Amino acid sequence: MIICLRTLSNEMVKKIDSSLYEDFKSHYFGDEILHRLDLCSMLKKKQPNGYYYCESSIVFGKNHEAALVKEALYRETQALLSRLNQIKELLSSPEIRMKISKELFEDRHNSNSKWQSYIDSGSPSA
């Protein structure tokens, strides 16, 4: 459940008029089991999954350590996916692919020359 209070002009509501909830002050809405509380920023860019940027999480219950490990793995995965997307974007550039091909070809040519020098002289060239 995400609690967010804004006006129609997209301004944050700082205080709710008590007359709006007066009839519900003694109303029992039921129980909700809370496992984790996410402290999210609505000002930062949303995560790739559409969820608000999570500044921190508080985990409750017996599975605290497992949840911490799972959350850490999730954050690491998100960071790696972000880096992977940056690499893919770089590799989509024809100029970058041309530079990589050139470097690979030159390294292969230099490696073959050194090997040929070794064969010809009986020892590696300095």
TrEMBL record:
<protein>
    <recommendedName>
        <fullName>A-kinase anchor protein 7-like phosphoesterase domain-containing protein</fullName>
    </recommendedName>
</protein>
<dbReference type="InterPro" id="IPR019510">
    <property type="entry name" value="AKAP7-like_phosphoesterase"/>
</dbReference>
<dbReference type="Pfam" id="PF10469">
    <property type="entry name" value="AKAP7_NLS"/>
</dbReference>
<dbReference type="GO" id="GO:0010738">
    <property type="term" value="P:regulation of protein kinase A signaling"/>
</dbReference>
<feature type="domain" description="A-kinase anchor protein 7-like phosphoesterase">
    <location>
        <begin position="14"/>
        <end position="60"/>
    </location>
</feature>
<dbReference type="InterPro" id="IPR052641">
    <property type="entry name" value="AKAP7_isoform_gamma"/>
</dbReference>
<dbReference type="GO" id="GO:0034237">
    <property type="term" value="F:protein kinase A regulatory subunit binding"/>
</dbReference>
<dbReference type="GO" id="GO:0005829">
    <property type="term" value="C:cytosol"/>
</dbReference>
